[in-house]
Every structure is written in C-alpha cells, then in structure tokens.
Amino acid sequence: MEWYTHSRFSSQLYLDGPFGEGHQDWYRYEVSVLVGGGIGVTPFASILKDIAHKGTLKSTFACKQVYFLWVTRTQKHFEWLTDIIREVEEKDTTGLVTVHIFITQFYEKFDLRTTMLYICERHFQKISGRSLFTGLQAITHFGRPNFNSTLRRISDVHPEVGKIGVFSCGPPAMTNGVEKTCAELNINNGPTFIHHFENF
Fold first, then answer.
1. Can you list the GO cellular component terms from the UniProt entry (predicted)?
2. Contact criterion met (CB below 8 Å) for 131 and 124
3. Which domains occur in the chain, in start order?
4. Which residues does the chain have with pLDDT short of 70?
5. What is the pTM of this model?
6. In contact, 33 and 151? CB cutoff 8 Å
7. The pLDDT of residue 145
8. How far apart are CA 198 and CA 200, in angstroms?
9. CA 126 – CA 85 distance, rounded (Å)
10. Bridge partners, residue 101, by sequence
C-alpha cells in the first residue's frame, strides 16, 4: 500500500492490491484438487481451458496432478462444461488432469435403479474407456461425493507430497463439507490439505 501526493493537488490517491481470486493458486501445489458444485464450476472452467490450451503448446506445469471433482444434479445443466472437459481429455497428453463427475439426482445410492446404472456405466467404461452417460473418459459417479474417502485416496496416491491444495466453489453445504474433511484428515500423518473456498 502506498500513498501518492502531487504538490499541485490536495487530493491523495490510495493504491492497494492486486487482488486475485483464490483459485488462481492451484498451480502452486504439486497436487491440486478442484471441487465445483452447481454454478461454482465457473472458476474452474477457465483453469481447465488454460490447461487444454497449454497442452497444445506442450507447456509444463509445476503442478504434477490435478483432480477435478464436478458435483452436479445432471450434466445436462452444464453441457458447455462437458465440452471443455472433452477438450482437456483430447489435449492433455501428459495425464495431468483426472476428472470425476458426481450426478446427485440419484439420492438412494443403492436402490435398484442406481445399482443398474452403476453396472451399465462401469461395464461400458471398461469396454470403451468412456462414460455411457457423458461420452467422456471422466469417471461418472451416482450420488453425492464422499469427500473423506476421495481425499484420503488422493493422499494415499501421493504420500510424498507435503501439501495438497484443495479449491472448492459452490453452495455452502458443499464447501463446508470439504473444509470439515480437510480438517479431519490433517490430524493424521500424510500430506496437509490446504483448503481455499468460495461460496455461490
């Protein structure tokens, strides 16, 4: 912060900043987890597009792995994001990004309909390498994410990493769930989860 005063004028100019949006620091971590819910996926769309663009330029990132968790009632609400994920899958030749889509319109995770969807989805993905529902390589889950088990698995995959950046954006219930999970996991040995969030 600095004050500037010009001798010919009595007014003062106050400058402060620059201020950035918290999710812009994702690349500073070796491993980053991006969690977007509802319209909260918007900040991550630009990050994914940037990764796709730099993938065509064969650019490298300090970040070695990005996990994008998209929580949506149905992917049809955000077809534009599906197109961005498809572009990332085509251009991300190094496997930097791993995408998981959680479709929450299925409330009863183990009812007969959801069980059949799981079986069909996993079978189709095993054969074709793509989701039956989205056409993406991204793994589709039915129901809300279990952040504890998801982040714990990521921690197990990257035991050598000191800090994992977690960036969440969406409804307060979701970001609070991520915050609570990070706090619980940080009690244990292993990587420390640094959570940044914004509510929509």
1. NADPH oxidase complex
2. yes
3. 31-36+43-197 (3.40.50.80)
4. 1-11, 13-22, 56-58, 106-110
5. 0.82
6. yes
7. 93
8. 7
9. 19
10. 70, 140
